[in-house]
Amino acid sequence: MxxxxxxxxxxxxxxxxxxxxxxxxxxRAARINVLSLLDRKExxxxxxxxxxxxxxxxxxxxxxxxYLADCLDVFKQLPxxxxxxxxxxxxxxxxxxxxxxxxxxxxxxxLEWTREWIAAAARVLAPAGSLFLNVGARPSDPWTALDxxxxxxxxxxxxxxIHWVKSITIEQEAAGAAADLARDLSVGHYKPxxxxxxxxxxxxxxxxxxxxxxxxxxxxxxxxxxQDRSNIGRWAAAAAGIxxxxxxxxxxxxxxxxxDRDRPHPATFPPRLPEQxxxxxxxSRIRVVMDPFTGLGSTGVACAKLGVNFIGVDVDxxxxxxxxxxxQQAISPTTSARTGARMEKAGxxxxxxxxxxxxxxxxxxxxxxKASAGA
Length: 375
Known about the structure:
Strand content: 15-25%
Mean pLDDT: 77
CATH superfamily: Vaccinia Virus protein VP39
Low-confidence stretches: 1-34, 42-47, 262-266, 339-375
Strand order of the largest sheet: 1-2-13-12-3-4-8-5-11
Number of strands: 13
CATH architecture: 3-Layer(aba) Sandwich
Structural class: alpha/beta
Oligomer: single chain
CATH topology: Rossmann fold
Largest sheet: 9 strands, mixed
Distance between the termini: 16 Å
Number of domains: 1
């Protein structure tokens, strides 16, 4: 077996092997140059440009372009300062087995790759743009998410830290009489942890990076009503009757019946999360949104709802096909098959997380290597 592959090497391998995955409208894609949403520089040779995997027209004049490629290759072909908002969630390097590769690299190598793609993202981000980076961590290794945030420090300013809360308990007594709770309330989904050392992990980070730390936000786009209505008359900023939501966002996953059909990806966020990111940035200032790790396309679904242009990139043809279906369903609910249909038809199922270090056997694939057919 060869040397351990980096995410970049794996993604290149996956892009070359895309013939094994579903192809959508390939004859049309072959005639269209890369990133037609944006103005490419004069004199760029057409031969060196990537071809879109699929282009989907959205509501109005919006366009959604998908690329089956390494995001670093796509970043290179984007003009500087050409993307207004990037909302994404890269592999966390927690040993999750995707259908194409496993994110189980040496931590040093993983952070080197993280610095590389963030530097590329910073180059294409508009001066008043935003990068919303969702990342989680294993309770036994909580530094992972913070290390990823530090990797962006040479290139971008950390303007806000948002906490995506997936499960929450509100006690009746703590909420007070004004909340009108009949009992203690627990809402949301989480993965139980069988440990006497760690608590259940019910949240993930969304790091908000900007080029200069001065990007204006539409804080009231996610406004919530004042609990105490008397505050409305105290400050001029409260005249609208709502206040800034803050940096704690409760966004639970939808309840599903079958994961292989309804959420056929081992790590994805609900469309509401990127939607709130885009609303906070301000949709009136958004021309192009990008997700370099598209997965099932939740960011694209949010863009379709808000009516903004979208560029989605992924190295996995099966996930990308699913992302296209989900986006089409968001644009026109009656014209697309349900989520998971393409994977189910192909007989594919999401894989379980890789075993812990204590239970790794001799048959466990090495970090970063593509799993064997019998894995």
